[in-house]
Amino acid sequence: MPRTIALIEDDVAIRENYIAALQAQGYQVNAYADRPSASAAFEHTLPDLAIIDIGLKDEMEGGFMLCQQLRQISQTMPIIFFTARDNDVDTISGLRMGADDYLTKDISMAHLLARIAALFRRTDLLSSPKQQSEQIQLGHLLVDVSRMTVSWKSQPVALTVTEFWMLHALIKHPGHVKSRQQLMDESRMVVDDTTITSHIKRMRKKFVQLDDTFDHIDTVYGMGYRWQG
Protein backbone atom coordinates (compact mmCIF):
# COMPACT_ATOMS: atom_id res chain seq x y z
CA MET A 1 0.00 0.00 0.00
CA PRO A 2 1.24 3.52 -0.72
CA ARG A 3 2.36 5.72 2.15
CA THR A 4 -0.21 8.28 3.23
CA ILE A 5 0.88 11.89 3.71
CA ALA A 6 -1.39 14.50 5.27
CA LEU A 7 -0.75 17.97 3.84
CA ILE A 8 -2.26 20.85 5.80
CA GLU A 9 -1.79 24.05 3.80
CA ASP A 10 -4.22 26.95 3.36
CA ASP A 11 -2.73 28.38 0.14
CA VAL A 12 -4.57 26.70 -2.75
CA ALA A 13 -1.78 27.05 -5.32
CA ILE A 14 0.91 25.72 -2.98
CA ARG A 15 -1.36 22.92 -1.83
CA GLU A 16 -2.13 21.75 -5.36
CA ASN A 17 1.52 21.98 -6.39
CA TYR A 18 2.67 19.76 -3.54
CA ILE A 19 -0.18 17.32 -3.94
CA ALA A 20 0.91 16.77 -7.55
CA ALA A 21 4.59 16.40 -6.63
CA LEU A 22 3.94 13.96 -3.78
CA GLN A 23 1.50 11.88 -5.82
CA ALA A 24 4.08 11.68 -8.60
CA GLN A 25 6.39 9.99 -6.05
CA GLY A 26 3.74 7.38 -5.34
CA TYR A 27 2.43 8.83 -2.09
CA GLN A 28 -1.26 9.00 -1.26
CA VAL A 29 -2.01 12.58 -0.23
CA ASN A 30 -4.85 13.73 2.01
CA ALA A 31 -4.94 17.51 1.84
CA TYR A 32 -6.65 19.94 4.19
CA ALA A 33 -7.03 23.72 4.05
CA ASP A 34 -7.56 24.38 7.76
CA ARG A 35 -7.04 22.97 11.22
CA PRO A 36 -10.64 21.87 12.01
CA SER A 37 -10.95 19.65 8.93
CA ALA A 38 -7.54 18.06 9.50
CA SER A 39 -8.21 17.64 13.21
CA ALA A 40 -11.49 15.86 12.55
CA ALA A 41 -9.82 13.51 10.05
CA PHE A 42 -7.01 12.64 12.49
CA GLU A 43 -9.55 11.56 15.09
CA HIS A 44 -10.49 8.71 12.75
CA THR A 45 -7.30 7.81 10.86
CA LEU A 46 -3.68 8.84 11.19
CA PRO A 47 -1.46 9.39 8.14
CA ASP A 48 2.01 7.89 7.88
CA LEU A 49 3.52 11.40 7.88
CA ALA A 50 2.16 14.94 8.25
CA ILE A 51 3.34 18.15 6.61
CA ILE A 52 1.81 21.08 8.47
CA ASP A 53 1.79 24.80 7.73
CA ILE A 54 1.95 26.85 10.93
CA GLY A 55 -0.37 29.70 9.97
CA LEU A 56 -3.72 28.27 8.84
CA LYS A 57 -6.27 30.83 7.65
CA ASP A 58 -7.26 32.93 10.68
CA GLU A 59 -5.32 30.74 13.12
CA MET A 60 -1.79 32.08 13.23
CA GLU A 61 -0.57 29.06 15.18
CA GLY A 62 -3.11 26.49 14.03
CA GLY A 63 -0.30 24.22 12.87
CA PHE A 64 1.21 24.12 16.36
CA MET A 65 -2.17 23.08 17.75
CA LEU A 66 -2.41 20.27 15.19
CA CYS A 67 1.07 19.06 16.05
CA GLN A 68 0.18 18.88 19.73
CA GLN A 69 -2.94 16.87 18.87
CA LEU A 70 -0.96 14.42 16.74
CA ARG A 71 1.75 13.97 19.38
CA GLN A 72 -0.89 13.06 21.97
CA ILE A 73 -2.01 10.26 19.64
CA SER A 74 1.42 9.13 18.38
CA GLN A 75 4.92 9.90 19.64
CA THR A 76 6.68 8.47 16.60
CA MET A 77 4.69 9.52 13.52
CA PRO A 78 6.95 11.89 11.52
CA ILE A 79 5.77 15.51 11.51
CA ILE A 80 7.27 18.24 9.31
CA PHE A 81 6.45 21.91 9.78
CA PHE A 82 6.30 23.72 6.46
CA THR A 83 6.04 27.47 6.61
CA ALA A 84 6.85 30.82 5.07
CA ARG A 85 7.95 32.03 8.51
CA ASP A 86 11.69 31.58 8.90
CA ASN A 87 12.87 32.58 12.36
CA ASP A 88 14.48 30.85 15.32
CA VAL A 89 11.50 31.35 17.62
CA ASP A 90 9.16 29.50 15.26
CA THR A 91 11.70 26.77 14.63
CA ILE A 92 12.36 26.10 18.29
CA SER A 93 8.66 26.34 19.17
CA GLY A 94 7.85 23.84 16.43
CA LEU A 95 10.50 21.38 17.50
CA ARG A 96 9.56 21.68 21.16
CA MET A 97 6.03 20.70 20.24
CA GLY A 98 7.28 17.47 18.77
CA ALA A 99 7.96 18.09 15.09
CA ASP A 100 10.75 16.06 13.51
CA ASP A 101 11.72 18.70 10.99
CA TYR A 102 11.04 22.32 10.06
CA LEU A 103 11.21 23.54 6.47
CA THR A 104 10.61 26.90 4.85
CA LYS A 105 8.60 27.20 1.66
CA ASP A 106 11.57 28.29 -0.43
CA ILE A 107 13.05 24.79 -0.12
CA SER A 108 13.41 22.89 -3.40
CA MET A 109 11.02 20.07 -4.17
CA ALA A 110 13.95 17.64 -4.36
CA HIS A 111 15.07 18.68 -0.87
CA LEU A 112 11.59 18.22 0.56
CA LEU A 113 11.23 14.78 -1.01
CA ALA A 114 14.65 13.77 0.35
CA ARG A 115 13.63 14.74 3.88
CA ILE A 116 10.37 12.81 3.60
CA ALA A 117 12.21 9.74 2.33
CA ALA A 118 14.73 9.97 5.19
CA LEU A 119 11.97 10.09 7.81
CA PHE A 120 10.25 7.09 6.24
CA ARG A 121 13.53 5.13 6.22
CA ARG A 122 13.77 5.66 9.95
CA THR A 123 10.20 4.69 10.72
CA ASP A 124 10.62 1.51 8.66
CA LEU A 125 12.97 0.28 11.37
CA LEU A 126 10.06 0.29 13.80
CA SER A 127 8.23 -2.40 11.83
CA SER A 128 11.17 -4.41 10.50
CA PRO A 129 11.28 -7.89 12.05
CA LYS A 130 14.07 -8.50 14.53
CA GLN A 131 15.14 -11.93 15.77
CA GLN A 132 16.17 -10.45 19.10
CA SER A 133 16.18 -7.07 20.69
CA GLU A 134 19.33 -4.95 20.44
CA GLN A 135 19.72 -3.03 23.68
CA ILE A 136 22.22 -0.48 24.91
CA GLN A 137 22.50 0.24 28.63
CA LEU A 138 24.59 3.06 30.06
CA GLY A 139 23.99 3.52 33.76
CA HIS A 140 20.36 4.54 34.21
CA LEU A 141 19.80 4.77 30.44
CA LEU A 142 18.27 1.82 28.60
CA VAL A 143 17.78 2.04 24.85
CA ASP A 144 16.02 -0.68 22.88
CA VAL A 145 17.27 -0.07 19.35
CA SER A 146 14.96 -2.60 17.73
CA ARG A 147 11.82 -1.10 19.24
CA MET A 148 13.13 2.48 19.32
CA THR A 149 12.26 2.91 22.99
CA VAL A 150 14.22 4.79 25.64
CA SER A 151 13.96 4.71 29.42
CA TRP A 152 15.78 6.59 32.17
CA LYS A 153 15.71 5.15 35.69
CA SER A 154 13.03 2.74 34.42
CA GLN A 155 10.80 5.63 33.27
CA PRO A 156 9.95 5.87 29.55
CA VAL A 157 11.35 8.89 27.69
CA ALA A 158 9.04 9.95 24.85
CA LEU A 159 11.45 10.82 22.04
CA THR A 160 10.51 11.54 18.44
CA VAL A 161 12.07 9.50 15.64
CA THR A 162 14.69 12.18 14.99
CA GLU A 163 15.56 12.54 18.66
CA PHE A 164 15.92 8.79 19.03
CA TRP A 165 18.52 8.50 16.27
CA MET A 166 20.44 11.51 17.53
CA LEU A 167 20.60 9.93 21.00
CA HIS A 168 21.63 6.61 19.44
CA ALA A 169 24.48 8.36 17.60
CA LEU A 170 25.71 9.89 20.87
CA ILE A 171 25.60 6.73 23.00
CA LYS A 172 27.25 4.38 20.50
CA HIS A 173 30.57 5.89 21.55
CA PRO A 174 30.10 7.49 24.99
CA GLY A 175 32.49 10.34 25.69
CA HIS A 176 33.30 10.86 22.01
CA VAL A 177 32.29 14.22 20.55
CA LYS A 178 29.87 14.05 17.63
CA SER A 179 29.85 17.07 15.34
CA ARG A 180 26.56 18.41 14.05
CA GLN A 181 27.42 16.95 10.65
CA GLN A 182 28.03 13.50 12.18
CA LEU A 183 24.72 13.68 14.04
CA MET A 184 23.02 14.60 10.78
CA ASP A 185 24.67 11.74 8.89
CA GLU A 186 24.00 9.12 11.53
CA SER A 187 20.43 10.31 12.03
CA ARG A 188 19.89 10.34 8.26
CA MET A 189 18.86 13.99 8.46
CA VAL A 190 19.43 16.99 6.25
CA VAL A 191 18.94 19.96 8.53
CA ASP A 192 20.76 23.12 9.54
CA ASP A 193 22.77 23.72 12.71
CA THR A 194 19.94 25.61 14.40
CA THR A 195 17.60 22.65 14.00
CA ILE A 196 20.19 20.22 15.41
CA THR A 197 20.65 22.51 18.42
CA SER A 198 16.88 22.68 18.96
CA HIS A 199 16.57 18.89 18.87
CA ILE A 200 19.37 18.53 21.43
CA LYS A 201 17.81 21.12 23.76
CA ARG A 202 14.42 19.46 23.57
CA MET A 203 15.88 16.00 24.12
CA ARG A 204 17.75 17.23 27.23
CA LYS A 205 14.57 18.82 28.54
CA LYS A 206 12.70 15.51 28.32
CA PHE A 207 15.32 13.79 30.46
CA VAL A 208 15.44 16.68 32.95
CA GLN A 209 11.66 16.53 33.35
CA LEU A 210 12.13 12.98 34.65
CA ASP A 211 15.31 13.68 36.60
CA ASP A 212 16.34 17.23 37.46
CA THR A 213 19.93 16.07 38.08
CA PHE A 214 20.34 14.80 34.50
CA ASP A 215 23.49 16.24 32.89
CA HIS A 216 24.75 13.56 30.50
CA ILE A 217 24.41 15.36 27.13
CA ASP A 218 27.29 17.81 26.92
CA THR A 219 27.72 20.67 24.48
CA VAL A 220 31.37 20.91 23.43
CA TYR A 221 31.52 24.43 22.09
CA GLY A 222 32.78 24.74 18.54
CA MET A 223 32.83 20.96 18.14
CA GLY A 224 29.49 19.30 18.84
CA TYR A 225 27.91 17.10 21.50
CA ARG A 226 28.74 14.00 23.53
CA TRP A 227 27.19 11.60 26.01
CA GLN A 228 29.01 11.64 29.32
CA GLY A 229 28.56 8.58 31.55
UniProtKB/TrEMBL annotation:
It holds the Pfam family Trans_reg_C. One of its GO terms (molecular function) is transcription cis-regulatory region binding. Residues 133-229 bind DNA. SMART domains: REC, Trans_reg_C. Keywords: DNA-binding, Phosphoprotein, Transcription, Transcription regulation, Two-component regulatory system. One of its GO terms (biological process) is regulation of DNA-templated transcription. The keyword DNA-binding applies. Signal peptide: none annotated. Residues 4-120 form the Response regulatory domain. The modification 4-aspartylphosphate is found at D53. CDD domains: trans_reg_C (cd00383). Residues 133-229 form the OmpR/PhoB-type domain. Transmembrane segments: none annotated. GO terms for cellular component: cytosol; protein-DNA complex. The keyword Transcription regulation applies. SUPFAM superfamilies: C-terminal effector domain of the bipartite response regulators, CheY-like. It comes from the Bacteria. This is Proteobacterial dedicated sortase system response regulator.
